[in-house]
Amino acid sequence: MKKWIKRELEDYRILLRNVPSLVTSLFVVSVIMMNLLANKELFSFKYLALDCGFALSWVSFLCMDMLCKRFGGKAAAKIAILALVINLGASLIFKALTMTPGMWGEYYSTGSMQVNDALNATIGGAWYVVLGSSLAMFLSSICNAGINSFLGKRLRNTSYRDFAIRSFTSTIIAQFIDNLTFALVVSYHFFGWTPVQVFFCSLTGAVMELLCEVVFSPLGYRVSLQWEAEKVGEPYLQYCRKTAQFA
């Protein structure tokens, strides 16, 4: 057990040194921002409801697709877990600072204590929203990385078509799981959604998020090709081949 933990920590250390910092930064920032923006509704119909976090949710999945192609599904899942841990830390900081006696800038514009309390409640977040979003992200990230990696081993990976097949398939399934988990944990129990709304909103939301992936995936494919051409992350890939050989 100790040997396994030591090996995984070493794997993490080398991975973080080799993954392009811009991608890791985008991943982490998108997760923090989409969980914060999830407090605001984008639009809501009978069988389709999206929050403003939708505007950024595709970023994390596109980053995972790029990471899966170059570094593998295990590496992509590890970066996702890192982003989740940082997001939980950010949520704790937000909650702690909203409990301080100071006023938000908007209070001085309106003079309303209700506005200040509303901002504290929004930024601080409810425990069940943090729990639901964290569980949803963990499950969907593992699912996305696993499916993407599984398909990648069965495709030639020599064209955008192959990249699209593994990316689009993993995205819509993982996004559905993400939406469904959050809806079951939060929307069903705390917002009064019906089982029909839970299912159809999860499905239609996944389709909408897939459309964003379709639009931006050519960019992700070009970036991943550039990584391969420039041998980005080669020390980590060599380490993975070495540890697999002697495992």
Produce a short descriptive summary.
With 247 residues, the protein is mainly alpha-helical. The chain is 81% helix and 3% strand. The protein has a two-stranded antiparallel sheet.
Class by alpha and beta content:
mainly alpha
- Helix share bin: over 70%
- In spatial order, strands of the major sheet run 1-2
Alpha plus pi helix count = 10
Strand content: under 5%
List low-pLDDT spans. Answer: none
Number of strands: 2
Give the overall shape: globular
Let me know the largest β-sheet: 2 strands, antiparallel
- Average of per-residue pLDDT values: 90
Give me the Rg, rounded.
Answer: 20 Å
Query: How far do the termini sit from each other?
Result: 14 Å
Instruction: Give the topology string: H per helix, E per strand.
Output: HHEEHHHHHHHH
Describe the model.
This protein is an all-alpha fold and 247 residues long. The chain has ten helices and two strands. A two-stranded antiparallel sheet has the order 1-2. Helix 3 packs across helix 9, helix 7 runs antiparallel to helix 8 (160-190) and helix 8 packs antiparallel against helix 9 (195-229). 34% of the residues are buried. The model has no long low-confidence stretch (mean pLDDT 90).
What distinguishing features does this structure have?
single chain; 247 residues; mainly alpha; two-stranded antiparallel sheet; 2 strands
Could you give the topology of this structure?
Layout lengths: L1 H17 L2 H17 L3 E4 L4 E3 L2 H18 L1 H26 L6 H6 L2 H12 L2 H26 L7 H31 L4 H35 L4 H13 L1
